[in-house]
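The pair is quoted verbatim as follows:
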Amino acid sequence: MSVSLYRVKFARTVLLLQLMIFVIIGALFALKELTWGLSAIAGGLAAWLPNVLFMIFAWRHQAGDPVKGRVAWSFALGEVLKVLATILLLVVALAVFGAAFTPLGLTWLSVVIVQIVAPAVINNKG
């Protein structure tokens, strides 16, 4: 298997783990109250969707022979877009939809922690 295919599979695995985490946490918060469940889903989406957009951006720029220096600039631009998308989604969830802060924040934080911890766990599984 080529290195690029391995990286795509790895990224998809991490994104799938993040998706499962925020859906499960959203379902658990929904047991308490439906608005808490929806707020948790909004918090998970605010962390997960920018990651998906960044992965699509990175895969698109991966094709072909990378020009020296272009990889770093595309990575930096992708990170800036990811942070702006996260802020926008959190503001929309809190200000426009009136999401509850506690489930939104806890789910967002859980998805971010999965993003940090999952690569170490996946790489050390065997």
